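Dear all,

This email documents one entry for the complex benchmark we are building for the journal club exercise. For each entry we list the sequence lines for every component of the assembly. Then comes the predicted three-dimensional structure of the complex as a token string, followed by one or two observations. Please use this as the template for your own entries, and keep the labels exactly as they appear.
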Amino acid sequence: MEIIQTDIAIVGAGGAGLRAAIALAEMDPKLRIALVSKVYPMRSHTCAAEGGAAGVIKSDDSLDLHFNDTVGGGDWLSDQDAVEYFINEAPKELIQLEHWGCPWSREPNGSVAVRPFGGMKIKRTWFAADKSGFHILHTLFQTSLKYPSIQRFDEFFATDLLVDDGRCQGFTALEIRTGQMKQFQAKAVIIAAGGAGRMFPFTTNGAIKTGDGMALAYRAGAPLKDMEFVQYHPTGLPNNGILLTEGCRGEGGILLNKDGRRYLQDYGMGPETPVGQPVLKTMELGPRDRLSQSFWHEQQKGNTVSTRWGDCVLLDMRHLGEKKINERLPLVRDLCISYLGMDPVKEPIPIRPVVHYMMGGIHTDINAATPLPGLFAAGECACVSINGANRLGSNSLTELLVFGRKAAMSALAYMQSGLSTAKDAALAAQAKDSESRIQALFDQPAGQETINGLRQEMMHTMEQGAGIYRTGEGLAATCDKIAELRQRYVGISINDKSRVYNTDLMQALELGSLLDCAEAVAVGARDRKESRGAHQRLDFTARDDQNLLKHSLAYYHPKEPPRIDYLDVVITKSQPGVRDYSGAKK
Amino acid sequence: MSERQIELEVLRYDPEKDSAPRFQTYSVPCLNEWVVLDALNYVKENLDTTLSYRWSCHMAVCGSCGMMINGEPKLACKAFIHEYSDKIRVEPLAHFPIERDLVTVIEDFIGKLSSVKPYLIPKDDKPISAGEFKQTPAELIKFKQYTLCINCMLCYAACPQYGLVPEFVGPAAIALAHRYNQDSRDGGRDARQEVVASNEGVWECSFVGACSEVCPKHVDPAGALQQVKVASTIDWYKEHLMPWVKK
Amino acid sequence: MAKSNKPIFWSLFAAGGTVTAFVTPALVLLLLFASLGLVPSLFTYEHLHDFAHHWLGKLIIFGVILVSLWHAAHRLRVTLHDFGVRADTVVAYAVYGIAGLGTLMTLVYLLRI
Amino acid sequence: MSCKPYIRETSKTTWYLEHPRYKRYMAREVTCIFILIFTFELVCALGAVANGPEAYAAFLAKLHSPLSILFNLVALVVTVYHSVTWFNVTPQAMPVQIGEEFVPGQYIVGAHYGVWAVVSLVVLILGVW
Ligand SMILES: Cc1cc2nc3c(=O)[nH]c(=O)nc-3n(C[C@H](O)[C@H](O)[C@H](O)COP(=O)(O)OP(=O)(O)OC[C@H]3O[C@@H](n4cnc5c(N)ncnc54)[C@H](O)[C@@H]3O)c2cc1C
Ligand code: SF4
Ligand code: F3S
Ligand code: FES
């Protein structure tokens, strides 16, 4: 097996991975950096982000306000020291991106423009029309081309971490073109492999968001944190889950039920604000968890509109007018017309909540370091945690930058702290095992199980048991089901025996990652007997700060469900309080 | 929504087995609102797991799923079934070597993209602490269109000159160079000209215009290329006839 | 990679493309009339001679013919390439040679008028 | 390595038959042949003028041949096609920005058509006068 020697290897070339790579290249031009990604960097799912990235820049805003919005929005499950670091670094990172050429939308005087976003008390979301993530990703990718020390391994699929001497020292990755396994040997590894929304059937996440990075770390012994918190975005296109950005509501779009009532006022986010004059943190600009939950209640009451794609509510943007929609929300209009055949300039758009983001992920400390020495994580796959129980829209893109860079700094410091030399034989043996695991998939005779069959069952049970509202009973069933699926997974085989660009094989590996992550979600949710942020239990409707103002940590077991442990939340200056989204009252 | 039975004729090529590509036909029950990518996913999930193709976002933004659909370069996730008859032919993007089935080798494109120095080379250095560069909406709009490229390579598949002269740097890469040249914050045009203004650069383009016709993001690379030609020509005259004039 | 010298030819091509787009159809129409026997007054000997005799007329004639020739020559070079003729250097010498010859002839004729 | 990418060759001589837009392109490109011949027609006219009235009369006589009529007829169509294709792409090559907006392409094309009409009229009037 070919061994690729590097100093620091990064798994994932989305926003977080690219930011880390650039930071490393800038800190030390002599460093050998391997940037490994299962897709070409600009295909990473950061490109799909529409709305924008939050950072304090305007004079009417303050770091404290951003802090409070983030911590309150996260239902006090965020680590406040991490949030503090985050909000401090946020503006610098966004300016840095501006200096790299990101085409942020502008004010007439040439300074960057900001837009309102859900759960934010003040306009602070930097945006590049409604293609913010796209522009961030392409700016980062193009900037990364400046640095010869960033060696890219595009279309390499990381399969297992190599851990010896209690330290992470690299990983194995499949070169997708050739089907050959390569051993990446590194002094430190950063995982930035994105989210895992694909464990659900209805999601805004692209096909590549299969939790591989989380599973890599998890299987190597690093725990997954707060996995039970899964964010539903309230406004997805009903037929395929394509996201309509929160910017729609930020610009003044309103949500209506079948009677044309702005139903959010019935769920503690009112009183009603005038149409076309959105008020921050009120009504349509409430946080995502609340909005998605209101949908569920409306559905229970029979107030939703039934469409051929299921129950929906309506997002009405007609009053914004064609000019503003074209200028601020061109992609939204294009998506509605293309994929739904409806024009938001002319008619209200049916939408429903859709799985969007994993608040949980690989447990890291404030330095982006995991408990496994030598392993760092950043981006959606990591849980620092700044997002707590519910991420505020537009904090995630900024998080990629802030903690992507932080991970790079920590990894470099770790590397420079002097390490014992690697035991090559031990690593080679592990790499060999990893290769055999892939070989076994080829050799296994065709059996009963199909990859698609298992995947469908997994998605179904996740939606049934671990959706917007959960019950102990439903979760127990889902846990059982996932445990069963993990067992059955052992029996899968692949039909495609070719080594070249074998997507059958990749889907098999991705399914394995998804099942591991899904189990952490389900078990974490079953054991969290309270309602907080995005995790809502019908059998435990209150928040329980007494017992559960804690992060959950799921530890992997190859055959059994994960062991769940808890860790205190870091609270520095904001004591848990009431999340108030009825700003219009005052 | 009505269901339709579509004959999907897909090019297959497995380098380990086949010496040349062949077509395989799948009969796929499609909803009228589907895109061709949905039909391919149906095949992959239900009929034949060995079919290989790239995709991720399903919303025309990641640029992975470019392929020839009835001979036209298209994003499979933006090729609507209702616009086609009951027989649809799907092939890998033209002008690129076929790795496997619908997957092409795109290293050449990536290399060309990298060769034009597609990053901001600031006119003036400015520390982060000094804040952002000012850029008015009028300055932004000057290059905005060229930032919209998703690197889907449909333009390369449409451009006959790229097919005929593989050295041609090609539409998307040059449009990207133009994007930075036009940016009020940038001062790197000279550095980019070496590649862009070479014979293999913009001068291999004969303004066929096919690139802009197929571009799903309305980047209009053809326009960018002509503008680069005009600017490079002015450069040339300045350099050769008026060497004393500083650019 | 080195910067190309194509700008010389391309600038003539572009200028010629524009000039021919504006005036050539009308000129062709005039000559078509002439070929049908309805010689328009410009194409009578006297008028043409007077026109070409005046320095401004000379300049206009020379300008139009020059850019038309070089426009056509450069495009022909590309077109031959498009038809599969790969000997670009030979083609370039040939087509630019023709354009050069035409330019020279024009110059000589104009000087003689 | 087991990969063995398959390369599809583009035919260097017949590629333009593969798509209508390529045929349209080639039609545009071959206009140059007509423009070239026509320009030489002008050069010949000039040469005839330089050689005196008899030479010019001979030139006009040659121009009267059916072949020449046919050529000029076809050239008329072809050069109009050249003009149209040329003007239609000018907004791409030379966009005009006023403040925060680009002037819509059809205005630029329209302006060119307008000038074209005026120029043609002037040439025709001058020519027939
Ligand atoms: C539709 C949509 C809209 C959004 N809008 C916003 C918004 O407006 N504001 C905001 O703040 N956030 C938004 N988000 C969230 C945000 O975009 C994501 O959380 C963020 O982009 C994740 O970035 P990342 O770098 O962590 O991962 P990604 O960009 O997903 O990149 C993951 C990388 O890891 C690689 N990878 C994965 N597995 C492997 C493997 N096994 N081997 C090798 N490489 C691997 C992939 O190839 C890829 O390069 C949105 C998300 C979605 C889905
Ligand atoms: S210019 Fe258009 S067609 Fe070409 S790669 Fe970019 S988006 Fe695709
Ligand atoms: S199609 Fe090709 S020739 Fe030029 S205008 Fe576009 S790059
Ligand atoms: S799947 Fe992303 S562009 Fe089609």
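Observations: The mean pLDDT of chain D is 95. The pocket of iron/sulfur cluster (ligand 2) is lined by residues B 149-155, 171-172, 175, 215-217, 219, 221 (CB under 6 Å).
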